[in-house]
Fold:
Amino acid sequence: MDLKTFIRDIDNFPKEGVVFKDITPLLANAQAMQYTLDKLLEMVGDVPIDKVVGMESRGFFFAPLLAQKLNAGFVPVRKPNKLPAAKTSQTYDLEYGTDTLEIHSDAILAGEKILVHDDVLATGGTAKATCDLIKRLGGEIVQCNFLIELDFLNGRHKLGDIPMRALLNY
Structure:
């Protein structure tokens, strides 16, 4: 199945000059969703996973499904003031400014094997901030797993030596 036929480009979204990779056509097709989930799972292989961490908001589409299939827990990483219990925060640089992500402080135990999932790896800021949060809590990142990688933005370089896989590359 050619998943790229289910990804549409939206010009100038969310701002002028950006070509947004819209995955909602993929999500609207049951066969494409199942195929995507199967392929994302194949990328993980046989490595035991304790928790799957998904980033707000589009990482929430497949991360819980991956967690269920891997018999692992799901942990959301969210924008500020969205999580109700004690949190650990990580601020990171954007092209023009900063942003912050939060995780529940008790969501990951020291030594747990973690799969990080998001829909798109672009500049790598969100993925790196998420990995930094996981490391601060003592988690061991097994892999960063993405539906799409935008190669021209070189986001994988921010992840250093963390294993990274993407299903589709643009």
